[in-house]
Structure formats: C-alpha cells, structure tokens
Specification:
Layout: H1 5-18, E1 19-24, E2 34-41, H2 45-54, E3 57-61, E4 71-77, H3 78-88, H4 96-111, H5 120-142
Antiparallel strand pairs: 1-2, 2-4, 3-4
Length: 153
C-alpha cells in the first residue's frame, strides 16, 4: 500500500507511544515463531488507519478486572509486520531498535528454504533477537529521565 510521508509520520508517532513489537509462539519451541506488531486502544478509530496503511486485523477484547471499557487491538504478522516496520522505521524514535531487530528477524525467515529444519545456530540467533526485543520492550516502560539523549529535558 502506498502511504504518504504525513501518514507514516503520524503512524510512527502513534506506534512509538502505543505499539508493541514481539515474536510470538503457540508453544515454548523456538522452532516455530513469528513476528507480530500491534497497537491497542479503547477507541478503534486510530486502528482503522493502521489497518488501511498496513493490512492486518482488528479485534475487540472485552474488558477485564478494573478496566471499564473494551480494548481494541490491531495486529499484523509475518511479512506484513516486517513490511510495516520497514515503512515506519525512518520515522520511529522509541521503537527504532525493536523495529530494526524485528526486520532482521523477518529477513532471516526470508532466507530459509521451506520444509528444512532449523539448525541449532539458527535457533540461537532467533532466540537472541527475541530476547533483545523483550528487553527493549521492558526497558521502554522502565526508562527514566536520566536515560534521555543529550539535549532533551
């Protein structure tokens, strides 16, 4: 999908604040994992823009403990997630490193032949990328003002 710089700048800013980059698995095996990105909101309207720009799906999650409203989640996986991050990357600030790692992860998948088992070294590389993304996601929530770049107050 062709997107304007203005649309991508808006989407990157929104994604920096509300988005998530992750490697997902249905099991504990690192041999079947996939890249996914998502944005969750109480109001689904911004998510419609993400779906228009990058594809994917939007689902409603009913409210749970202490949350008064339902939460809506836009998610895109695999190649579409990688393609979305490539488009967003020039405009990302907070999620730039996660996006770069996720794009590298998706590129590893492109290089593989279908129906060929993963070697131990391939599993290790994937696990390292996944662990780094998890660390960065936690760090983003825990970052303090002392970690701001020079010149930012």
């Amino acid at each position: 999908m062709a997107s304007s710089v203005e649309q991508l700048t808006w989407a990157a800013g929104f994604f920096d604040g509300e988005g998530t980059v992750y490697i997902y698995s249905h099991s504990s095996s690192h041999r079947y994992r996939y890249l996914a990105i998502s944005v969750s909101q109480r109001d689904p309207r911004p998510l419609l823009v993400f779906r228009e720009l990058f594809g994917g799906s939007i689902h409603r999650h009913e409210h749970t403990r202490g949350v008064e409203a339902d939460i809506w989640k836009w998610e895109v996986r695999n190649r579409l997630a990688g393609a979305a991050l490539v488009q967003l990357l020039p405009y990302l600030l907070l999620k730039r490193e996660q996006a770069e790692l996720a794009i590298a992860y998706q590129d590893l998948l492109k290089q593989r032949e279908r129906n060929v088992g993963l070697s131990d070294s391939e599993v290790d590389v994937r696990r390292a990328i996944e662990d780094k993304i998890k660390f960065l996601n936690r760090k983003g929530r825990e970052a303090s003002v002392t970690e701001l770049p020079c010149g930012v107050n």
